[in-house]
Amino acid sequence: MPNTKLSRKYRPITFINVSIEDIFWEPRQRANREHTIPIEYQQCRDTGRIDAFRLNWKTGMKPVPHIFWDSDVAKWIEAASYSLATHPDPQLNTLLDEVIALIASAQQPDGYLNTHFTVVEPEKRWTNLRDQHELYCAGHMIEAGVAHFQATGKRNLLDVVCHYVDHIASIFGTQPGQKRGYPGHEEIELALVKLYHATDERCYLDLSQYFIDERGKQPYYYDLESVTRGEDPKAYWAKTYSYMQAQIPVRQQSEVVGHAVRAMYLYSAMADLANETGDNDLLDACRALWRDVCLRKMYITGGIGPSRLNEGFTNPYDLPNETAYAETCAAVGLVFWNHRMLQFDCDGRYADIMERALYNGVISGVSLSGELFFYENPLASLGHYHREPWFDCACCPPNIARLLASLGQYVYSQNDDEAVVHLYIQGQGKFRLGEQPVVLRQETQYPWDGEVNIHLDMEQPTSFGLKLRLPGWCKNANLSVNGTYIPIEKRIERGYVCIHQVWNPGDMVQFIMDIPVERVYAHPEVNQDFGLVAIQRGPIVYCLEQVDHDIPVSQIILPVDSPLSFEFTKDLLGGMGRITGEALVTKTDDWKDTLYRPGKPGSHVCQITAIPYFAWDNRSPGPMRIWLPER
Amino acid sequence: MPNTKLSRKYRPITFINVSIEDIFWEPRQRANREHTIPIEYQQCRDTGRIDAFRLNWKTGMKPVPHIFWDSDVAKWIEAASYSLATHPDPQLNTLLDEVIALIASAQQPDGYLNTHFTVVEPEKRWTNLRDQHELYCAGHMIEAGVAHFQATGKRNLLDVVCHYVDHIASIFGTQPGQKRGYPGHEEIELALVKLYHATDERCYLDLSQYFIDERGKQPYYYDLESVTRGEDPKAYWAKTYSYMQAQIPVRQQSEVVGHAVRAMYLYSAMADLANETGDNDLLDACRALWRDVCLRKMYITGGIGPSRLNEGFTNPYDLPNETAYAETCAAVGLVFWNHRMLQFDCDGRYADIMERALYNGVISGVSLSGELFFYENPLASLGHYHREPWFDCACCPPNIARLLASLGQYVYSQNDDEAVVHLYIQGQGKFRLGEQPVVLRQETQYPWDGEVNIHLDMEQPTSFGLKLRLPGWCKNANLSVNGTYIPIEKRIERGYVCIHQVWNPGDMVQFIMDIPVERVYAHPEVNQDFGLVAIQRGPIVYCLEQVDHDIPVSQIILPVDSPLSFEFTKDLLGGMGRITGEALVTKTDDWKDTLYRPGKPGSHVCQITAIPYFAWDNRSPGPMRIWLPER
User: Fold this and answer.
1) How far is residue A319's CA from residue B429's CA, in Å, rounded to a whole number?
2) Can you give the residue range of the structural domain that contains A472?
3) CB contact, 8 Å: B589 with chain A?
4) ipTM, two decimals
5) Are strands B624-625 and B517-522 parallel, antiparallel or unpaired?
6) Is residue A152 part of a domain?
7) HEC states along A317-339?
8) pLDDT tens readout for residues B129-140
9) pLDDT in tens, A374-386
10) Of B258, B369, B248, nearest to B309 (Cα)?
11) Could you tell me the pTM of the whole model?
């Protein structure tokens, strides 16, 4: 059925009104708060990223403030602000104010704010939007300013970024004397929509729309600015502006191309603008792009962008496992975008992708301790790839930190007469329905168990619809309200079970999803997974890690009929589901002195243990694989 | 049994005394002669590689003579000379003399000969052996001079290279005032052994030995010359001198590392020197290195060097298919080295590798027409990889040209009382045994058929041993002499069937090898081939190419029991064996709107056609794969 009303029918419940108190996410949020966020601050400090705002760099000094350093500090501020909002911390509050004061001190009289282009290459300000990340850094600073304002009510960073954006709006646009440029690395577009909501200043939305509208028009701005710099546009290293989704205007785009993180940030902004302006073409483009990425170019983990060369997309169904780039930031971006798409129609397809990325390819990016990170998230390893404490290009650690700190906002949505549960996470969400405050309280061991008990609290009987997501992976579920069984078949709308009724204080909804161990296959056109099988249970994709096996995990074959069983294991990695079963391991003792031979390799029965993919490389280093040959 | 006599027990029959008149190689030699060699000359001409020897380049002119251009011309001379020796061609003879005269005119009074470092960067002569290919170019020019001398008896290029080598010998060595350098790209070492044989000048062998002995000693020469150039040795891009096999002295090397072509040229020279000097340690190193590459790091095609990053080796059993680099030159080098190792003991293991590379990963490097080339030889393609007319770095086309033009030398060996047949190729080989000229004439349709009839011609009865290679892939063979069956079991020595007797003029030996279609498996530690099967028949590895199929070749599964049958197909690609059979193709029509799902993909029976791997990408472009999932 076509969607006739374009604007979003739903709005997320802000993370401030959501508590997370479960066995899965709460420990990760805690590690994020207690380890990741402090570590990131320390790294920003130690590497000179924060001190760069002192603007005391002089020629010859090391380190040289890098063009995207500011964004790392901004994302740390954003993460720390979200954390502060749900877990007050006076020390962190003070620290944030100190860093913000330093940033404010670096703002130029005209509003400009960028450490590199203030002290290192001031003459190059706004001369190379294609490569130099100025507007990207601005975007992250805007998001930081908005987040800090939301968390604390303080305008100390918000005012700085407004001043900066006023400056940017004076530079870029269609008026005479303005540059008709747009960012090489998208990010500011979605940030400006946030700033619009924080300030109610329409000009910020207009600037976002200008960047979106201008993108990909011919003659290409990047060509023109290259010539202005005295460079041959043809010498551009990436050869094509599809690298940053600027090869054609965005409304004409239907194929996901180029750098994956840039794509996700762009599409998120497009979805936001479609909502704000009712722009049918923008939303149609988003839907076509969504089909391309989610039906042809996404790993089973929700990782996207297989290639290291462009940090991005290649051909449809090209999903190599060992060499998967699948940048953590790109999976984070996929969550951002799908969350935005989800609010239009509450279509479970978007929630399914959001959940897939969250439970797999996003949280694989940080160790369980919150102290080590993956930039790339391959789906197989020969044993040479490991988590690291930091990266020179440090976009991923603070990106996952800001997502985890604000995870609450992804759990619920509402509109005027419906409360929606997207994610099953123990804790509560505060709604306002029919002028009444309503609290939903989930009790669940999800994703280890499929039973969810939802308690409804309110002051008086209230009529509204409760929508519970029936995950795409779930084939059977049982629903009861106050102990009365309710058939769900006719209540399913776009992947959500809907119960419209008058609710009373203390009502209890029980939703039990069957959550069997599943063998999952990739579309046959995914060459690299052809003939292979993956193990999934609920939203969690499992992998075999060498540390659990005496036999080489790379030589395991999964017979098509071997039973696999799940158990939650308290002493595994702080409490973790694991799947065990029988498989075959190939014999190697009869391969002396030969690399190729006729004569099928023999095998013998072995026991296997699969752990969640996101939890790999948290113990002894070694090989890992998700996709297994099936016999 | 340890080999007590170190020097080679066998010597190859020179290609001048071998005719190739078969259905497999003769057309390829003809294409090489009629297309490849003329094309390469024209490319060398058109790109400025030949004109560079005029030394009239001035600053600012384009193109700039490149540091390895000279080697492309040299390899063309070598290929053209070999061709001339077996197929006289007065025009080519004259052309060679013209080019040689031009090269001679570029030689400096002191003997130095290198276009780039004479006109472009004369001040940098011999200042960067690590990166700059001067000794590599010299090596190829030496090989060209020797080949031209062997082919024509003319010394016009030989004298030039002797003069150049005398200069090089004055620059490099252990004497006071000499540079203790050695090549960053090995090549000159094996060339100097050839020059020694052509001239009988021991000093050339000594210089080769010096380069071999000096390699990898500490302090590293490359460190010292970096410092002399004012560069930090640690800034070396490849980080380690294992890139050019100079991390430790060569006699201590047992792991194949770094750039694959460099490795093969080095090991070839090591084998040559071991033979010349009886150096046990050098031969032992060769044998250890051989085990490492041939039992752990070689593709089923004989391709080597999986990684594009170092154009070379990675970890044991790391053999990715789609991204296989497997440079044509590296497979050519593998042939060079194994041919040299083979002459020590006539051990069929070396001939097996030589044959595997020749019939697969070497000749895949040039189209059947001789007009288009592969630099990289992947074992699978999604359809985006194709042959090209030339490369900026053009080492591969002339490398395969010189190999094909001199192919005859790989067919036979002899010692004083044995004649050996390594390769089954219709045509004749001229031996001298017991002071008598002996001609072996093979009649065979090999590799399409396993029957070989060998006619022996000589003037009078002569006693000698005839050794016929029993290929490693062959499980059963029948031998008869003049129609009398001879059991072979007790006559097999290191992979050769040996018949020592008095031979009479007109004797006929019939050797019939069973040559079934085989399913071949990779060692289970080869992660990328795990659970997969390849089709091989005789020495030929087969592949599925899209052009022969209506169904996607990437979605084919080979049932373990499906019959496969071979037929020689006259109208396929100029006459080609092909293998047909039944397989399963996965259904995709029930995959609408999903990329991952539980529920094993269905399949239906389909017909498949496999063609020799070397012949792929000679028709309509499309996907290709060698390794297939087996069910």
Assistant:
1) 51
2) 414-513
3) no
4) 0.94
5) unpaired
6) yes
7) CCCCCCCCCCCHHHHHHHHHHHH
8) 999 999 999 999
9) 999 999 998 989 9
10) B258
11) 0.88
